[in-house]
């Protein structure tokens, strides 16, 4: 062993001898547990279910119906086999590679080694890189021809990591091409819509961004991007009521743009996971004895077993308790009676208790007071945590940018104010420094008063509040506990003799739900706190067909407390009993309180429509993100308004001094006639209305020669005689005359820069332009 003054390195011999020194302290079972044993192979055996005892009594339950048998497993030996180096014969490479294997050969290209400054990890490469140049196969084609060929068809984007999508539109720098059904009953046609003014710049920016990304990040030269494809990525497969599986693509909000030369229209190897399938026969999809869930109106969500099948219909056996439907309403009522419904904005709550906005903000968060011994005491109610993004259940929440407080919170603040008004009077003081106890309480026993306030807050249960994320909604612990007690009471009262069985014959396949089909069929299902649910997915840690109640809602999942405990259950952060809670996805459960997939049991009746509105629960401050003017939610290529010519609002006579901007004539102060401060001198002319409408395509009227008065006015708008338009030529410098006449009022040279007359001592005008021409 080598020993240093600050560390030591133990030798392997010493370390290996440590376990053997304690071997005599172990029992025979513990020594047998630590010894190496044979491997075990687990085999699924549904024919002979057995009882498997608990491996850890008191923690893990006994498996009453174990459908698995164990056999010793010995690793196979090579038996003289040798390693074959290289690829096997018949392997698929290049463009023929299997789905998921990227290949550069799917697009025609050339490669060249040279300096390019590729930036992958934050800094440009100084050495040479292998740069790929894409050959654009659509370079000589018209955009309209590309649109007619590709819109409505699939394509593959993300080269070389190809992902499937469907082309919804095609656009170039001027138009966007979409397929629209103009005449009902006729096939849709491809029509072109011009971009809006903002859409023109947005399209160019998008094309440049795509080209820059491939060039600097990937080392791929795409060439000039003249055409973009609007692609909706493949989301997966969806199951139809007939049993067929078809491809499901994203909506318009999630479509992406891709350069046409970077897309692949056809591939050799299809992804077997996303192949569309025809409806299988009922006997194959629902074999006899398979477990399903009935979706009929009178026994919605009841577990069933397939009895027989025909060509178009099947028969199932239901097993349920007749009182279950009434029990669902009782669970919902527990939550409804416990939830606080009225919330007030913070400014409204401040008015209700007679406090300012600053005071209500301080008292509902943390309000630290230091006692004489230097100890910090929080006298706030801790109802909101802005920095941590937390709220308190049943007391506070945040809607957009503003906090809201419930009636319980308002009553608590009002009682706090009546009990200790001294604390409320100090809340409006400025500064962020912590106050001392003597600053809050003027009495000699200020520290004792601080402790008294803390004790009062503890008696009100402030320390037991449950801060949760702003982006979720949950029930309180006592409500969850009441749900558990009620569920245990119902389970204790049930007996196997009370189970009712019924057979339903001649129903269509859409009237039952197979557990493996839940992820496809239960899309867009809505949930709320207190809803009664049942587990319909046969994969995961929650037992099949167990029932529970929703106690928490998240953005993409929900928290459920179940009627019975199970091995993989949790306490959901001490919000429920151990092994009774879990977080599950929306598609794994069937909502029994709000049936949304009720199907007819008559094969000849049409199937009820499924919910089409996506379920996206939003809690907390989610500001509404508005698209820029003239842009859609995704791409921004909104068609321009058709019809009347475009007009702009302008006033050619805007100004303060001369005939052009006339409020008068060539007055001393540029507002009137020949009088000192006159506004309506003899040379005044009527000015045009301030909001005159001018056609954008009509040039401004020609001007007369300037009238030489002493104090000229501000002629045309800043920039000279010509308009400083978007595309117009630049005008002379500010001042009216080009060259050296830069005075702010007269026509003096730069040496004698007067504001009004020829010299600084002369008449002062307010105009900036010298003698401006009059309007024709």
TrEMBL record:
Signal sequence region: none
Residues in 5'-3' exoribonuclease 1 D1 domain copies: 86-277
GO molecular function, one term: 5'-3' RNA exonuclease activity
Biased composition (Gly residues): 662-671, 736-748
Exoribonuclease Xrn1 D2/D3 domain mapped to chain residues: 281-505
GO biological process, one term: nuclear-transcribed mRNA catabolic process
Residue ranges annotated for the 5'-3' exoribonuclease 1 SH3-like domain, each copy included: 525-591
One annotated Gene Ontology cellular component of this protein: nucleus
Stretches the record annotates as Disordered: 17-40, 643-680, 701-776
Residue ranges, compositional bias (Basic and acidic residues): 21-33
Tree of life domain: Eukaryota
Protein name listed in UniProt: Uncharacterized protein
Biological source species: Rhodonia placenta
């Amino acid at each position: 062993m080598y020993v240093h003054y600050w560390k030591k390195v133990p030798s392997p011999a010493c370390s290996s001898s440590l376990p053997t020194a304690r071997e005599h302290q172990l029992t025979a079972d513990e020594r047998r547990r630590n010894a190496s044993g044979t491997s075990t192979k687990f085999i699924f055996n549904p024919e002979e279910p057995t009882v498997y005892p608990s491996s850890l009594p008191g923690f893990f339950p006994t498996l009453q119906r174990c459908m698995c048998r164990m056999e010793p497993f010995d690793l196979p030996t090579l038996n003289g086999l040798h390693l074959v180096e290289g690829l096997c014969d018949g392997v698929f490479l290049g463009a023929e590679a299997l789905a998921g294997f990227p290949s550069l050969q799917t697009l025609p290209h050339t490669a060249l080694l040279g300096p390019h400054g590729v930036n992958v990890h934050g800094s440009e490469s100084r050495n040479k890189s292998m740069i790929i140049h894409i050959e654009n196969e659509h370079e000589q084609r018209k955009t309209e021809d590309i649109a007619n060929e590709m819109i409505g068809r699939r394509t593959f984007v993300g080269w070389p990591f190809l992902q499937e999508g469907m082309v919804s539109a095609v656009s170039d720098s001027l138009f966007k091409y979409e397929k629209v059904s103009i005449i009902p009953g006729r096939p849709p046609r491809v029509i072109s819509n011009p971009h809006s003014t903002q859409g023109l710049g947005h399209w160019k920016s998008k094309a440049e961004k795509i080209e820059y990304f491939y060039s600097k990040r990937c080392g791929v030269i795409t060439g000039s991007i003249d055409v973009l494809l609007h692609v909706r990525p493949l989301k997966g497969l969806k199951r139809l009521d007939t049993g067929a599986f078809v491809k499901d693509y994203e909506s318009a909000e999630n479509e992406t743009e891709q350069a046409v030369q970077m897309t692949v229209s056809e591939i050799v190897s299809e992804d077997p996971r996303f192949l569309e399938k025809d409806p299988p026969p009922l006997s194959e999809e629902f074999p006899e004895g398979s477990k399903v869930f009935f979706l009929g109106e009178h026994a919605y969500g009841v577990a069933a077993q397939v009895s027989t099948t025909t060509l178009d219909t099947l028969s199932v056996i239901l097993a349920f308790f007749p009182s279950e439907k009434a029990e669902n309403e009782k669970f919902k009522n527990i939550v409804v009676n416990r939830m606080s419904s009225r919330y007030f904005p913070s400014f409204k709550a401040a008015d209700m208790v007679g406090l300012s906005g600053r005071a209500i903000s301080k008292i509902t968060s943390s309000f630290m007071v230091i006692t004489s011994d230097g100890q910090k005491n929080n006298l706030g109610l801790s109802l909101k945590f802005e920095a941590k993004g937390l709220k308190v259940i049943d007391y506070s929440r945040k809607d957009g940018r503003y906090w809201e407080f419930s009636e319980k919170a308002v009553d608590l603040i009002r009682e706090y104010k009546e009990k200790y008004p001294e604390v409320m009077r100090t809340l409006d003081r400025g500064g962020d420094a912590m106050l001392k106890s003597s600053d809050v309480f003027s009495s000699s026993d200020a520290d004792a008063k601080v402790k008294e306030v803390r004790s009062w807050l503890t008696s009100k249960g402030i320390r037991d509040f449950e801060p949760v994320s702003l982006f979720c909604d949950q029930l309180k612990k006592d409500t969850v506990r009441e749900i558990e007690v009620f569920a245990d009471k119902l389970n204790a009262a049930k007996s196997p003799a009370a189970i009712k069985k019924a057979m339903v014959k001649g129903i269509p396949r859409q009237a039952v739900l197979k557990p493996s089909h839940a992820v496809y069929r239960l899309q867009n299902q809505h949930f709320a706190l207190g809803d009664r649910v049942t587990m319909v997915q046969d994969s995961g840690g929650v037992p099949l067909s167990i029932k529970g109640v929703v106690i928490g809602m998240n953005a993409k999942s929900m928290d459920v407390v179940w009627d019975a405990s199970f091995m993989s259950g949790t306490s959901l952060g001490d919000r429920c009993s151990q092994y009774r809670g879990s977080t599950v996805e929306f598609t794994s459960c069937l909502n029994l309180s709000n049936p949304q997939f009720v199907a007819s049991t008559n094969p000849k009746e049409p199937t009820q429509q499924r919910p089409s509105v996506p379920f996206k629960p939003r809690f907390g401050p989610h500001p509404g993100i508005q698209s820029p003017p003239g842009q859609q939610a995704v791409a921004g290529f909104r068609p321009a308004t058709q019809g009347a010519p475009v007009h702009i609002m302008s006033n050619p006579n805007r100004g303060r001094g001369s005939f052009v901007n006339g409020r008068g004539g060539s007055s001393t102060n540029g507002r009137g006639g020949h009088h000192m401060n006159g506004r309506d001198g003899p040379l005044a002319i009527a000015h045009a209305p301030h909001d005159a409408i001018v056609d954008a395509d009509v040039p401004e009227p020609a001007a007369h020669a300037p009238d030489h008065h002493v104090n000229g006015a501000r002629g045309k708008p800043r920039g000279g005689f010509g308009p400083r338009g978007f595309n117009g030529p630049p005008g002379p410098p500010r001042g009216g005359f080009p060259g050296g006449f830069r005075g702010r009022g007269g026509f003096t040279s730069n040496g004698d820069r007067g504001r009004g007359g020829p010299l600084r001592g002369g008449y002062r005008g307010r105009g900036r332009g010298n003698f401006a021409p009059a309007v024709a």
